[in-house]
Amino acid sequence: MKNAVVKNRDTLAQTLDAIEFKLNVPKRAKYETAQLKARFQALREENPAALVAGAAGVVALVGTGIFFGVRAATRR
């Protein structure tokens, strides 16, 4: 009987911790930021060429968007 109570308490505590984590937006933002930094760090160490290629792709997309935005604005 006592084992069941202890087990239920532990389960309830884990559930409440999970709910608190889901509802605590600043805490989740910090956690997700740390996870993203760790993934970039791992990518940088494992395959730096892929990281550079990805960054170049992002720069190309942003540059293309700016180019077409300015072009559309000046044609009015």
Task: Explain what this protein looks like in three dimensions.
Helices cover 93% and strands 0% of the residues. The protein is an all-alpha fold and 76 residues long. It has one domain. The mean pLDDT is 92.
Key structural traits:
mainly alpha, 93% helix, elongated, single chain, 76 residues, 3 helices
Query: What string gives the helices and strands in order?
Result: HHH
Main sheet specs: none
Count of separate DSSP helical elements: 3
Give the number of DSSP strands.
0
What is the mean predicted local confidence, pLDDT? 92
Give the assembly state of these chains.
Answer: single chain
Distance between the termini: 78 Å
Structural class: mainly alpha
What value does the Rg take, in angstroms?
Answer: 23 Å
Shape descriptor? elongated
Detail the poorly predicted runs.
none
How helical, in percent, are the residues? Answer: over 70%
Instruction: Classify the beta-strand content into a percent band.
Output: under 5%
Number of domains: 1
